């Protein structure tokens, strides 16, 4: 399924979501690898199979096998890190901040693609998952690499659009299930 076909599944009550999905493919703020890697990573992080499959279907032909694997790695590693570091940040007991995480995350140091691309995917997923510590860490890395606010904002905007599309699809399914009952 393509993004165009996916948009047909989004009901009229979420017209803005359809319009925002349309705007992503034409955005020129990011390189193609950054953009389509975001489709993959955020599609997986959305945890919506229909959306994930449509975004991967759209992106996979435009990414190298290494970039596709790296985008999937970003989703997987941020799934782990965002839970752990959000806990460390939010826990009343601050002892956790000085304890070693003891989590393997070698892919962050060697993602198989340009580090900036991987960091953009990671900050977008961290925003989706609400991990302030991870957002701060990835933004700092991106800033040190010379990435401007426009690219960071675009990555997070894509994450917001993809998250809203997942919710719109869930809402559409919920309405259909209620009518069938």
Automatic annotation (TrEMBL):
Antioxidant protein with alkyl hydroperoxidase activity. Required for the reduction of the AhpC active site cysteine residues and for the regeneration of the AhpC enzyme activity. GO terms for biological process: cell redox homeostasis; response to oxidative stress. It is an enzyme of class 1 (oxidoreductase). Residues 95-174 form the Carboxymuconolactone decarboxylase-like domain. GO terms for molecular function: disulfide oxidoreductase activity; hydroperoxide reductase activity; peroxiredoxin activity. The gene is ahpD. Its EC number is 1.11.1.28. This is Alkyl hydroperoxide reductase AhpD. It catalyses: N(6)-[(R)-dihydrolipoyl]-L-lysyl-[lipoyl-carrier protein] + a hydroperoxide = N(6)-[(R)-lipoyl]-L-lysyl-[lipoyl-carrier protein] + an alcohol + H2O. The active site is at 131 (proton donor), 134 (cysteine sulfenic acid (-soh) intermediate). InterPro entries: AhpD (IPR004674), AhpD-like (IPR029032), AhpD_core (IPR004675), CMD-like (IPR003779). Disulfide bonds join 131-134. Keywords: Antioxidant, Disulfide bond, Oxidoreductase, Peroxidase, Redox-active center. The keyword Transmembrane does not apply. Belongs to the AhpD family.
């Amino acid at each position: 399924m393509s993004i165009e076909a996916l948009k047909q599944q989004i009901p009229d009550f979420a017209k803005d979501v359809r319009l925002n999905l349309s705007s992503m493919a034409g955005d020129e703020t990011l390189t193609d690898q950054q953009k389509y890697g975001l489709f993959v990573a955020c599609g997986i992080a959305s945890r919506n199979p229909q959306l994930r499959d449509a975004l991967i279907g759209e992106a996979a032909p435009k990414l190298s096998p290494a970039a596709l694997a790296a985008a999937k790695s970003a989703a997987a590693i941020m799934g782990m890190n965002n839970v752990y570091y959000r806990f460390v940040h939010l826990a009343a007991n601050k002892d956790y901040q000085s304890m070693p995480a003891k989590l393997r995350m070698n892919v962050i140091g060697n993602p198989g693609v340009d580090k900036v691309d991987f960091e953009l995917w990671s900050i977008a997923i961290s925003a989706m998952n609400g991990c302030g510590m991870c957002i701060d860490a990835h933004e700092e890395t991106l800033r040190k690499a010379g990435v401007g606010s426009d690219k960071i904002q675009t990555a997070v905007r894509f994450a917001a659009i993809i998250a809203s599309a997942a919710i719109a699809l869930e809402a559409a399914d919920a309405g259909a299930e209620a009518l069938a009952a």
